[in-house]
Amino acid sequence: MAWSPDDMADLVEAVSRAPSVHNSRPWELTLHGRAAVLRENRVELLRHDPGGRDQRISCGTALTNLELAVRGLGWRAQVDLHAGSGEVSGSVTAGARAEPSSRELRWARAMPQRHSYRQRFDPTPLPERLRRVVRDATRGARTGARWIGSDAEALSTARMLGYAARVFRANADYSRELAGWRSPVGEELRRVSGGLHGLSAVGLAAADSDLPDDDAVAERIREEAVLLIGTRGDRPDDHVRAGQAVERAWLAATSAGLAASVTTQPLHLGVVRVALAKRLGTPLIPQVLMRFGYPPGSV
Ligand SMILES: Cc1cc2nc3c(=O)[nH]c(=O)nc-3n(C[C@H](O)[C@H](O)[C@H](O)COP(=O)(O)O)c2cc1C
Questions:
Q1: Of all protein residues, whose CA lies closest to atom 17 belonging to ligand 1?
Q2: Beta carbon of 266 within 6 Å of any ligand 1 atom
Q3: Domain Nitroreductase spans what residues (predicted)?
């Protein structure tokens, strides 16, 4: 048995909906037999991501969408990760017939609705129940997450982000890359970045960015629900797993009516990853920061 043309269209569509760094979609999808293979495609290595961390996280988000699409078609989905010394790949193989769970269906339906929301949220705080749902969606054998909770944690996080933003702002090569990013997403990011505040602004710092001070960022972190997603190791396959966790959390949030955006740039600095984990007292290696909230007018 092989994928039908309709199955193939669903799988291609699901993968194309996945979030990726600068919307670069750094993967290649091949469909054969009952398998769908997603290979990292590093043709255009981003200067700010020399180790390819963001590209592998992006492959992870696409792998989650691929898995959900196979489940949505009513097949069991066997997911395998392959990470050697070169590029990483992941495969989803369809097994026996098996109806998707109601959660899988909700997440699959949320794929076309999910998008990055970088502006302010409605001030209504997230209820504890939803915080649990979103955090639990990140759980895997080597992944997990924790909310940035107390005032002290918000301030420590803000200081780390401020430090990273100043390092990136002083990096002329990085700023040139952001400025030269001529895709529609790059245009959009440049257009909105002047109006961004708090975490979103710090996550996209370039030479001309007007950085908010640490106290203002800390206040924004306290107002918004900020989740740190991390992994138990820092191998290439861990980056893919982080991406899988990001997309599960994002789809869980979207299906509950929440909006979100992600930031990884500050966590590219090893010193920031180590210091943040230490200050938050978490054994996880920080990979991604996500902010969640209600879109204005939705509550
Ligand atoms: C690994 C990764 C890193 C990202 N980093 C940022 C970031 O630092 N700031 C930001 O605003 N968006 C970031 N994004 C979001 C992408 O820009 C976004 O997913 C992409 O442009 C597609 O848009 P969409 O999410 O609305 O579908 C990141 C996404 C991924 C997967």
A1: 22
A2: no
A3: 225-294
| 66 and 143 together in one domain | no
Q: What is the distance between the alpha carbons of residues 231 and 241, in angstroms, rounded to a whole number?
A: 8
Q: Which residue has the tokens 């938050």?
A: 280
What's the structural domain count of the chain? 2
Give 96-135 as a DSSP string.
EE-PPPHHHHHHHHHTTT--B--SPPPSPPPPHHHHHHHH
Look at residue 207 and give its three-state secondary structure. Answer: coil
| Span from the CA of 21 to the centroid of ligand 1 (angstroms) | 5
Place of tokens 């001309």: 208
pLDDT in tens, 121-179: 999 999 999 999 999 999 999 999 999 999 999 999 999 999 998 888 887 777 777 66
- Among protein residues, the one whose CA lies closest to atom 27 of ligand 1: 115
**In this predicted structure, what is the pLDDT of residue 87?**
80
154 beta partners: none
Q: List the Cα angle 278/279/280 in 5-degree steps.
A: 90
**Structural domain ending residue among the three candidates 83, 110, 137:** 110
Quick one: 58 and 133 in the same domain? no
**Helical pair 151-169 and 172-180, crossing angle rounded to 10 deg:** 90
Instruction: Look up the domain containing 160 and give its range.
Output: 128-293
- For the CA atoms of 292, 293, 295, 299, the dihedral, rounded to the nearest 10 degrees, stands at 150
Using one digit for the tens of pLDDT, what is the confidence trace for 187-243?
666 665 555 555 565 566 666 666 778 998 899 999 999 999 999 999 999 999 999
